[in-house]
Write a structure and sequence with these properties.
Distance between the termini of chain B: 69 Å
Largest interface: A-B, 73 and 61 residues
Number of helices of chain B: 16
CATH class of the domain at 4-28 and 108-256 in chain A: Alpha Beta
Structural class of chain A: alpha/beta
Number of strands of chain B: 1
Largest sheet of chain A: 6 strands, mixed
Shape of chain B: globular
Structural class of chain B: mainly alpha
CATH architecture of the domain at 4-28 and 108-256 in chain A: 3-Layer(aba) Sandwich
Strand content of chain B: under 5%
Radius of gyration of chain A: 22 Å
Strand order of the largest sheet of chain A: 1-13-12-11-14-10
Radius of gyration of chain B: 23 Å
Number of strands of chain A: 20
Oligomer: heterodimer
């Protein structure tokens, strides 16, 4: 066991509505794969509406990397192929028949397999898209050999799902998944755990990988933070990363030969009456979670956490990579002299509201922007929630002027937009920092390819 | 309150694009957001946002300025009656100062906010709250006898050439309030220095020179006591005399995290160390003055707390802040002691370092870049 990495900078946003640690079956009957979840992917559809599919049946592939295919998580019928503006493919909806039939990709003994065979099996079964790379957070390229693979076994974001609970009792599958990952890299597989909160033997007793301990406030659970402390990315380096449920799916593929898209999703947030965990499959419809379990007001449904998640409809679908659905109230109301009052109940990282006297308060936060967009005036604030040896404001400005050399110099390869989420939250100027950084990353990806 | 909301909602369409008052949209928006935090919600990225915004930030700075402002008003009256050789009660003194100060503040805000609204409308932006603070800072750093028309011109100059030509609040290179002060200082020197301007409608019972003015001409034995300097019962610019009140403001700014302690601390450290160095050197009586006096006198404390810490014009990197603040302290004392034309060096020192702040940051960021390049070279070697 190596040393504990202590992260000091950051911020834990405390919200009410943490999911209770019980898991119930969701019994969802509609599922969807949403191509916009995959950054830089140009989907080419392989099915028609009305086609019958089983778990593992290819639905679409990436036009520019045609060996990367995306398969159905469940068995049933293709209900709809929804497109948006400019015929952009938004989602492929599958109506489940409840039988969970799957294609058999064949069991295999992981130790006997060569790297090529492992990659081939992951590609054809459709589990490959679970592997993503840094920089850019795009799906890993099968021809690359990453210098390391990072598995984040805990999540520090607000109302985060508890991975200890999710992997409980699945030690063999998890270990099998890790063994597969060790075949894919020449370097280490790093399993990163929280030095206090991670207690699951599934994680702590993992073999053939390096277990690293971290502690500190969010974003200490972010992959970029782990990478920056353990094995920083230089220009040209590639690392891959994934999360515990992805490791389980990969492990099960090799142990049973089946594409098991089982996901345990935390349903949390202040507007959820009974926040708890639901067992279902990738891309489940929210309908049965929301039904009679959320408050009546005008709510925002988020696939993922409140910092980086995707806004979805009440009857929308959980994102491909997400293990959490958050429901918070919308904030489209005017507030009389809100900027002038003492503010005992206001959430703020700054100490300009008297609520800072009560740091352990849990909040019911809404989506109000709390002000208008301004030029950058308050400097030196982002650094307090940004635990990297990078100058955030300077990097943001380099992206805004599209100065590619400067972005590279300032370390854009080492970060992702999610690392700027807290900067965006505490920003006095109310600018959309995550989308600025995303644009910068997209620009770099185009320039470098 | 609902009636006001209804009224605003009813008037809003007139000010939007195509409405009959669309040219006044920025002005309407400024008024509406003054009363109500807008109902806008997050559309991309994080779904929640901090309650702090520019208005909140600026109101905190405004509150931090109030102790020094109120004391300044009282001191105008106190110095006035002192110079007449009359005694008076505190409320009369305060009222005298208040009536003296009010027109100055009204002119400052009237001219400044008017221009801000015009520029916001031209640019299609919302009105930025930056002038909310600048508009109060300017009256506090000028002598009480400054003619109103001069203040109006100085404010207009500061807003247009100090800020808007660079793109508005957040884009300016130097502190707009200090630009206004510098403009007055160089355009109307006779109204901005000497012995007559520091006391309102001065009588002849006392000399009107500021302690710094006296020190520069060698009258060091006429200096006020440290206690007087700390409390601020001395002639000077309106807001700068009371170090006690400025420190209350400093505590507010530091507790709320709005001003950076690194800058504030290093300005004082720089000033003190320069004072000590002069003590060691000791060529004349001024150089032998206790360094603490330097920190208490003139605009040093006010500049360190409210001017140097302006986040837009200061250095923005952690190490840069130390360098920036330290040099402000050193140069301010250097100008004070050695330059025969300027009894006060703080204004020029901060303006100079405002200009150098981006250069300081550039080298700090450059060292971060070099560290990254070195790491890559090392990785390539292995």
């Amino acid at each position: 066991m190596s040393t504990t990495f202590i992260i000091k900078k950051g911020l834990d946003i405390k919200l009410i509505g943490d999911a209770e640690k019980t898991i119930v079956d969701l019994n969802a009957n509609r599922f969807a794969i949403k191509p916009p979840n995959f950054i830089g992917c140009f989907p080419k559809v392989l099915v028609k509406e009305g086609d019958l599919v089983v778990a593992g049946t290819p639905l679409f592939y990436d036009k520019y990397r045609d060996n990367i295919i995306f398969t159905s998580p469940v068995s049933g019928k293709v209900e709809a192929i929804r497109r948006g503006a400019k015929r952009r493919l938004l989602e492929i909806i599958i109506n489940s028949d409840g039988k969970n039939e799957t294609i058999d990709f064949g069991k295999s003994n992981i130790n006997d397999l060569k790297r090529e065979a492992v990659v081939e099996k992951m590609l054809t079964s459709g589990v490959w898209p679970l592997l993503r790379q840094r920089p850019y957070s795009v799906i890993a390229n099968p021809v690359d050999v990453p210098k390391a693979i990072f598995v984040a076994a805990y999540d520090t974001s607000p109302l985060a799902p508890d991975f200890d609970l999710i992997v409980h009792g699945q030690g063999d599958e998890f270990q099998a998944g890790l063994d597969v990952l060790t075949k894919l890299t020449e370097g280490n597989v790093h399993l990163n755990v929280d030095s206090n909160k991670t207690t699951s033997k599934v994680f702590l007793n993992s073999k053939n990988v390096q277990v690293n301990k971290f502690s500190g406030p969010h974003p200490s659970g972010n992959v970029s933070v782990h990478v920056s402390k353990i094995d920083p990315i230089n220009k040209g380096d590639i690392i891959w990363y994934l999360y515990p449920q992805d490791v389980l799916t990969i492990g099960k593929l090799f142990l049973t030969g089946k594409f098991d898209a089982t996901r345990i999703i935390a349903f949390a947030g202040s507007e959820v009456k009974n926040p708890k965990y639901y067992k279902t499959f990738i891309g489940a419809s929210l309908k049965n979670m929301v039904y009679e379990n959320t408050t009546d007001g005008n709510n925002r449904f988020i696939s993922g956490n409140i910092l980086t998640g995707e806004k979805i409809e009440k009857d929308g679908f959980v994102g491909f990579y997400d293990s959490l659905v958050t429901v918070i109230p919308e904030g489209n109301h005017h507030e009389f002299f809100g900027w002038l009052l003492p503010g005992f109940n206001k959430f703020s990282f700054s100490h300009t509201f008297l609520s800072w006297l009560n740091p352990n308060k849990k909040y019911r936060l809404d989506t109000n922007l709390h002000g208008g967009v301004r030029a950058y005036v308050m400097t030196g604030k982002y650094e307090k929630v940004f635990p990297f040896d990078i100058y955030p404001m300077q990097l943001i400005k380099a992206v805004l002027v599209e100065d590619i050399d400067q972005m590279e110099n300032l370390g854009i390869y080492e970060i992702d937009n999610e690392d700027f989420a807290l900067c965006e939250v505490i920003d006095t100027s109310k600018t959309e920092i995550q989308s600025i950084i995303r644009k910068g990353l997209d620009l770099m990806r185009q320039e470098m390819s | 309150m609902k009636a006001l909301r209804k009224f605003l909602d009813k008037q809003k369409p007139h000010f939007e694009k195509g409405g009959k008052f669309q040219k006044l949209q920025s002005a309407f928006d400024a008024v509406e957001t003054l009363f109500y935090v807008p109902d806008k919600v997050t559309t991309s990225g994080a779904h929640i946002r901090d309650a702090v915004d520019m208005k909140r930030t600026m109101i905190v700075v405004f509150i931090a300025l109030i102790p020094a402002l109120l004391f300044g008003m009282w001191n105008i009256g106190y110095q006035h009656f002192l110079s007449l050789g009359e005694s008076s009660d505190h409320w009369t003194m305060f009222l005298y100062g208040f009536l003296k100060m009010l027109p100055i503040i009204i002119v400052s805000y009237g001219v400044g906010l008017g221009l801000e609204i015009v520029f916001a409308q031209i640019r299609g932006h919302e009105v930025n709250e930056g002038f909310f603070v600048s508009g109060l800072l300017i009256p506090m750093i000028i002598p009480p006898e400054t003619p109103l028309w001069q203040i109006a011109i100085a404010v207009a100059f500061a807003v247009i050439f100090g800020k808007e030509v660079f793109g508005g609040t957040g884009m300016n290179i130097v502190n707009p309030a200090l630009i206004a002060r510098a403009f007055l200082f160089f355009a109307y020197p006779s109204d901005m220095s000497g012995e007559k301007v520091w006391i309102s409608e001065m009588g002849d019972a006392i000399s009107g020179a500021t302690p710094l003015g006296k020190a520069l001409v060698g009258n060091l034995n006429e200096m006020p006591s440290i206690f007087e300097m700390f409390i601020g019962t001395i002639p000077g610019s309106i807001g700068e005399t009371s170090v006690l009140m400025i420190l209350i403001g400093a505590v507010i700014l530091l507790a709320t995290g709005i001003a950076n302690w690194r800058i504030m601390f290093s300005v004082f450290a720089g000033g003190y160390i320069m004072g000590l160095l002069f003590n060691l050197w000791g060529l004349n009586a001024y150089m032998e003055m206790n360094p603490i006096n330097h920190l208490l006198l003139g605009g040093f404390a006010f500049g360190a707390v409210f001017m140097a810490t302006d986040p837009v014009t200061a250095a923005q990197t952690k190490n840069g802040m130390y360098i920036y603040g330290f040099l402000i302290g050193i140069i301010a004392i250097l100008i004070r002691v050695f330059n025969p034309a300027y009894p006060e060096g703080m204004m020029l020192s901060i303006l100079l370092m405002n200009v150098f702040a981006p250069l300081i940051d550039h080298y700090i960021v450059e060292s971060n870049i070099n560290k990254r390049l070195k790491r890559m070279k090392l990785a390539l070697k292995n």
